[in-house]
Amino acid sequence: MIVKAVVSYDGTLFYGWQVQGEKRTVQGEIEKALFSLTGKNIRITGSGRTDTGVHALGQVFSFEIDEKIEAKRLYKAINAYLPEDIRVLSTEKAKDDFNARFSCKKKTYEYRFYLSETEIPVKERYALKIFDVDIEKMQESVKLFNGYHDFKAFSSSGRTVKSTERTIFDSSLKQFENDLIFTVTGDGFLYNMVRIMAGTLLQVGMGKLPIENITNAFETGNRNLLGKTLNAKALVLKEVIYE
Question: What is the mean pLDDT of the chain?
């Protein structure tokens, strides 16, 4: 039986999603829990990798398990063996050809800012402090991400991909009192892409980059035209979409 599972985690104390030797990773902890539950080495497949410090509200993974276990109640049994910073939210029986990675159609990420001159401890763990920015200019800039573009300039080196072209279906920057949330939905994301997009918006808002650098970066692939790669702590994988 193929199982589709949705999981949420606080990425602060993890070295990302993917198993990396003896390092503490989300995938590693889930596979340990499955071994404790079943006595078998079960390999899981995630919709994609999240990096060190990145969080998830709705990451998805899939795996194969014995039919004797009821899929819809399986998440409760897995959670009994997981640390408190990971929780499986749901499990269900999937089609035989379902694969959390290759069946994925869209993903939505959020990057969170808060407006303050001074660090606010209760927000610091999951958001980046900013101050004195032009929010309207940032909101104007975010529209340029939408559509089909070559995002080569919006990626960090270190990973090889077949293509750097991606489609962004929707992106927005919304203010909720002193919180700013950058939300972006696309058919896929390059290494550090969302953090560079967020960093570019911030630099535009601070008056350090002209808006036209975004379109110039699409055309030239020049990473130097864009903002910094922002801290992973404020990035959340919100949802993985399969339809």
Answer: 96
